[in-house]
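Help needed: design a sequence for this.
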């Protein structure tokens, strides 16, 4: 016989999540600055920090309170990291980047590397276009492992409040991701595209550059987006189209060999 205590809640999933948060906070109560950390004399450090071994904190860096930076992280010059943010091992944050409060950035992520900017020359070779902007990550953003967010050519690449990025996501230069948008693994957003708020983008989605994706858009996994999408749309396919239109088209696509055979048969009969 099993004696248990049952606790009734309005939302079991949210309650379970809260319990996991409490456990995670308890498990990750790390504080202190390891003696093998390199910290610039001009850096400004908050209270109750954890700075792991072999991390590097550059010139004029500002780090808020209760920040945790795990071993082997690189924080470039003039970076700002606000309160309660966690950077796991091996995160690289290039110069001039800004990271908000309550963010979690997982191992191997690179923030602020050069955007993919090259200009063709008369000889056919490509000349690098200097990328002198930065990256701004607002509050309550989660970024998965080995994700890359490129700095802007000019201005800022912006990840708005509440965005959730999976592992292995590529965000190119001058992209803006609207608040509370989620993007699954292996998706890529090309340069200067603006993604709206509350969007859901599946895994392995490719979005071309200089597009506008409206608010509340849903893009199914493996879709290829080559033109702008209006708000509240649900799209699928390569190239991406309306979800219902794609499903209707797919019925005929599966029967395409039979349809072609029938067409050929009818054509030969008429001749």
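Sure. Designed sequence:
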């Amino acid at each position: 016989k099993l004696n248990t205590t049952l606790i009734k809640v309005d939302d079991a999933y949210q309650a379970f999540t809260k319990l996991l948060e409490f456990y995670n906070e308890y498990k990750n109560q790390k504080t202190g600055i390891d003696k093998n950390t390199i910290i610039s004399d001009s850096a400004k450090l908050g209270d109750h920090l954890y700075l792991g071994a072999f991390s590097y904190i550059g010139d004029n860096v500002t780090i808020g309170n209760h920040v945790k930076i795990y071993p082997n992280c690189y924080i470039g010059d003039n970076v700002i990291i606000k309160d309660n943010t966690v950077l796991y091992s091996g995160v690289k944050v290039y110069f001039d980047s800004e990271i908000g409060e309550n963010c979690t950035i997982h191992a191997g992520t690179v923030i602020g590397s050069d955007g993919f900017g090259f200009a063709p020359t008369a000889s056919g070779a490509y000349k690098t276009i200097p990328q002198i902007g930065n990256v701004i990550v607002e509050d309550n953003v989660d970024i998965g492992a080995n994700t890359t967010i490129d700095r802007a050519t000019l201005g800022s690449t912006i990840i708005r409040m509440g965005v959730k990025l999976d592992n292995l996501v590529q965000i190119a230069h001058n992209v803006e991701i609207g608040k509370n948008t989620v993007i699954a693994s292996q998706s890529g957003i090309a340069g200067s595209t603006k993604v709206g708020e509350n969007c859901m983008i599946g895994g392995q989605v490719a979005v071309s550059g200089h597009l506008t994706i409206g608010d509340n858009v849903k893009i199914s996994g493996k879709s290829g987006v080559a033109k702008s999408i209006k708000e509240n749309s649900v799209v699928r396919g390569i190239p991406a189209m309306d979800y219902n239109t794609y499903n209707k088209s797919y019925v005929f696509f599966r029967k395409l060999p039979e349809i072609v055979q029938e067409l050929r048969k009818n054509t030969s009969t008429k001749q």
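The first helix runs from residue 12 to 27.
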